[in-house]
Each structure stands twice: as structure tokens, then as C-alpha cells.
UniProtKB/TrEMBL annotation:
Species of the source: Roseovarius ramblicola
Domain TRAM positions: 396-463
Protein family: Belongs to the methylthiotransferase family. RimO subfamily.
Protein residues bound to [4Fe-4S] cluster 2: C168, C172, C175
Enzyme Commission number(s) of this protein: 2.8.4.4
Reactions performed catalytically: L-aspartate(89)-[ribosomal protein uS12]-hydrogen + (sulfur carrier)-SH + AH2 + 2 S-adenosyl-L-methionine = 3-methylsulfanyl-L-aspartate(89)-[ribosomal protein uS12]-hydrogen + (sulfur carrier)-H + 5'-deoxyadenosine + L-methionine + A + S-adenosyl-L-homocysteine + 2 H(+)
Subcellular location(s) per record: Cytoplasm
Record domain MTTase N-terminal: where: 27-137
Superkingdom: Bacteria
GO MF, one annotated term: protein methylthiotransferase activity
GN (gene name): rimO
Name of the protein described by the UniProt record: Ribosomal protein uS12 methylthiotransferase RimO
């Protein structure tokens, strides 16, 4: 049993889980997927297409005829991690195709690893398939190699990411995601709903809605309506929440990457009604108006506190998670202290934090007043200590309460790892049940009485 550590990268997806075994003689492809949940969805789409063409999916290097490395380019440390993964795949397999965000910089990759077979950019599915076809020609058996209706999934069977758009219209100075993934491109609402219906039909109990800017969903297509569904985040959330009733089960719908635009308040009644989980993942990034201006982000932290108070008034059970950057160029001790004071007032439930890093191509690199590394580390330590104290106090208040949880895992000793409605997989906390779990299965949603609390996790007994 592992507890949730305070230094988890809040941008990372769960580790991809490959469970299929290729048949003898079947061309097989391996996949290494790095980065955020949006990249994991890209990996699922690529593997689904390959599976439909008769390729097997290998869980290890030795069983694969070629390996796709789906890279991340979010931070320089993530780029280094991607280069390391490419190098490992080359050493272990030798036939490597690179895709993903770092693929937008092909010379950067081939300069370090000239032996890769091909490099493609983010969500360039056709180019990835062309590269696979060239490296490993397909050889399907039409009587055996059939694609499951729900496609290839790299998450556990009971939850799934649902990507509703690509790209981003923001111009944050520290971020190059729009340069790599382009401007906002929303999917038609009816296509999103149809995918969600298929996932629910296949046994998914929790839908994790993701995009680069979930609040802006539909803006680029003028909130078009088709087949009875409108491309607006409020309408989409309502439609997704209604799928649970249609399926006759308790479906959890969780919203990630929600910018605090004014219309977000329209989501809160849906949470109070139980249509979607009372959970908002909002990337505030900082609280001092001068720091936010240097980031080229909205600088209305005080009004944000008013919004948070209104959300909690209308839905007292709402859980708020966010990510922040410390050590941004020009950040003074006074600005950092403002962030700590804001955190004390906001009392967010779940918090992640990055130390600022330069990223090639980001406009923040040219800003004056870069903060020394030791100061960044000190501020990160102080920020996380403050966030930890808030988390510990909030969880202590949960002792004695009855909470609904979803079962993620049951280990060999019968200890169940579960999550409450306030916890997203991998990035938030867990609730552990260490007795009476014999009748539980992964994906069950059950009621638990909390009997112990830690800094990030809870323990409880079944009720």
C-alpha cells in the first residue's frame, strides 16, 4: 500500500497499462506514453487504429516489432525524460517511431537519436500509421484480429479520459502548448456524447473530461448544435451527467482543466444536483496580480476568491484542486508571500506545484529577474508545507463522515485502494480500506465511514 506523496507531477497521466498478448506471428507494436492525460488519449487512438488493422499490442520491448514513444514537451525536464525514453527504447528494441508534443521539434530528437525511424508531431495519427506501415507491414487474420467495440484503453476498465478538444487560445508566456498543438479545436458535442455512451456501455464508471481549456469548449465552433447536443461546457456536462441515469448506474463525471471564466458558475448547480462530481480542477498558477500579468494570465485573484466563496455557498461539498508555479521570473518575496496568503484564504482541497523552468520557445525565457534555483526550491518547500497543512486539516474534518468511493485496486493482502468524489486518479489522494473487502471488485462504488486521516489520504471501513 502506497500513500499519495506531495511531490507528484500534477501534469502526468497514469502509467499506461498494456494487457493484451499478440498471437503467434502477429505483427506487434509497443507503446511508451509520457506526459499528460491528453497524450494518453492520443496513444489510445493510435493503438485503436493499429489494432483495427490487425496489429498486436505488446506490453514489453522484446515482444514488439517496433515501439512508438509518445513524447512530452511541456518542460525542459519533460523533454529530457522523453529523450531518455527514446534512448531506452532504441537500446531495448532498436526500431523506434517518435510522436507527441516533442515531435514538433524533429531536429531536437534526431540530433540526440539519429537512428529513430520517424518523427511525427502531436495528434498526427495518419503520419504515425504511415510510419508503422513502413517499418512493420500489417498482416491481419480477418477471423481473429477483431477490434473490441470500445477500442484500446490504457487506463483501468472502470475509468476513462474523455478528450473534448485540442489546442488552446491562451498565450501564457511560460507555455508552448499552443505552438505545438495549435489553437482550440472543439469536437462536435454529439461525437463526444457518442464516445461517452460507448465507454459507459463497456463498463466505465467514471469519465474524466479533459482538454487544454475545458471552459472554452465550443467557442471556436460558435457553440454549434447538432443531433440534439450543443457544444458548450454547461450543456455538455449536463448531457454527460444524464448518461448515468440512462445506464441505470452511478456514473461519475469529473471536469479537469477548467479556467475560472464567469460562466463556470453555471456548472455549480449541476454539481449540487449530482449530475457531475462536485470537483473543479482549475489552473490558477499564481495569486499576485503582477506575477499573473508577467505570465499573461488574468490577474483578478481577489475576484477569484469571491467566485470560490460563491461556489462553496451553492455547493458546499465542492472540492477544488489547482496547480501553481513558484519562482517565476521577477517573482519577489513579497509576491510569493501574497501567494501563500491567498492559499490560506482559498483553502483549496488539492494542490500541485511546479518550480519554474525555462522551455525552449517560451516568451518567459526573455523576462528579467530569473529566480535562483535555491530560492525556487525554498519557495516550493514552503508552498507545499502550507498546502500540506491545509490538506491535513481538511481531511481530519472528514473523520466520522460517510463517503462514496470508487475502488481502484485490491492488493494481495485484501487492502483496497479507493478514491472519494474529491479525488482524481493518480494526482489526488486515496482512501484505503484494510478489512472486509472480500466482496469488493475494482470499479465498485461503495459507501465508507472514514476512521483515520493523514496528510493526503484517508482510511475507512465499509458501511
Amino acid at each position: 500500500m502506497s500513500q499519495n506523496p506531495p511531490d507528484l507531477r500534477p501534469d502526468l497521466a497514469p502509467r499506461a497499462r498494456l494487457t493484451e498478448t499478440p498471437r503467434r506471428g502477429q505483427p506487434a507494436i509497443g507503446m511508451v506514453s509520457l506526459g499528460c492525460p491528453k497524450a494518453l488519449v492520443d496513444a489510445e487512438r493510435i493503438l485503436t487504429r493499429l489494432r483495427a488493422e490487425g496489429y498486436g499490442i505488446s506490453a514489453d520491448y522484446t515482444g514488439a516489432d517496433a515501439v512508438i514513444v509518445n513524447t512530452c514537451g511541456f518542460l525542459d525536464s519533460a523533454k529530457a525524460e522523453s529523450l531518455d525514453a527514446i534512448g531506452e527504447a532504441l537500446a531495448e528494441n532498436g526500431r523506434v517511431i517518435v510522436t507527441g508534443c516533442l515531435g514538433a521539434e524533429p531536429e531536437y530528437i534526431t540530433g540526440a537519436h539519429p537512428k529513430v525511424l520517424a518523427v511525427t508531431g502531436p495528434h498526427q495519427y495518419e503520419q504515425v500509421l504511415d510510419a508503422v506501415h513502413a517499418a512493420v507491414p500489417p498482416d491481419p487474420d480477418p477471423f481473429i484480429d477483431l477490434l473490441p467495440a470500445s477500442g484500446v484503453r490504457l487506463t483501468p476498465r472502470h475509468y476513462s479520459y474523455l478528450k473534448i478538444s485540442e489546442g488552446c487560445n491562451h498565450k501564457c508566456k511560460f507555455c508552448i502548448i499552443p505552438d505545438m498543438r495549435g489553437k482550440l479545436q472543439s469536437r462536435p458535442a454529439h461525437a463526444v456524447i457518442r464516445e461517452a455512451e460507448k465507454l459507459v456501455e463497456s463498463g466505465v464508471r467514471e469519465l474524466l473530461v479533459i482538454s487544454q481549456d475545458t471552459s472554452a469548449y465550443g467557442v471556436d465552433i460558435k457553440h454549434a448544435e447538432a443531433n440534439g447536443h450543443r457544444a458548450h461546457i454547461t450543456d455538455l456536462a449536463r448531457d454527460l451527467g444524464s448518461l448515468g441515469a440512462g445506464a441505470g448506474n452511478d456514473l461519475w463525471v469529473r471536469l479537469h482543466y477548467v479556467y475560472p471564466y464567469p460562466h463556470v458558475r453555471d456548472l455549480i448547480p449541476l454539481m449540487a444536483e449530482g449530475l457531475v462530481l462536485p470537483y473543479l480542477d482549475i489552473p490558477f498558477q499564481h495569486a499576485h496580480p503582477d506575477t499573473l500579468k508577467r505570465m499573461a494570465r488574468p490577474a483578478a485573484a481577489a475576484r477569484t476568491l469571491d467566485e470560490i466563496a460563491a461556489w462553496r455557498r451553492d455547493c458546499p461539498e465542492i472540492a477544488l484542486r489547482s496547480t501553481f508555479i513558484v519562482g517565476y521570473p521577477g517573482e519577489t518575496e513579497s509576491e510569493f508571500q501574497t501567494l501563500l496568503d491567498w492559499l490560506d484564504e482559498a483553502q483549496l482541497d488539492r494542490v500541485g506545484c511546479f518550480k519554474y523552468e525555462n522551455v525552449a520557445g517560451a516568451r518567459s525565457n526573455a523576462l528579467p529577474g530569473h529566480v535562483p534555483e535555491e530560492v525556487k526550491q525554498d519557495r516550493w518547500d514552503r508552498f507545499m508545507a502550507r498546502a500540506q497543512a491545509i490538506s491535513e486539516a481538511k481531511l481530519a474534518a472528514r473523520v466520522g463522515q460517510h463517503l462514496d468511493v470508487i475502488v481502484d485496486d485490491i492488493d494481495a493482502d485484501g487492502i483496497a485502494t479507493t478514491r472519494t468524489r474529491a479525488d482524481a486518479p493518480e494526482i489526488d489522494g486515496n482512501l484505503f480500506i484494510d478489512q472486509g473487502t472480500e466482496g469488493l471488485s475494482v470499479g465498485d462504488i461503495v459507501t465508507v465511514e472514514v476512521d483515520e486521516a493523514g496528510e493526503y489520504d484517508l482510511w475507512g471501513v465499509l458501511r
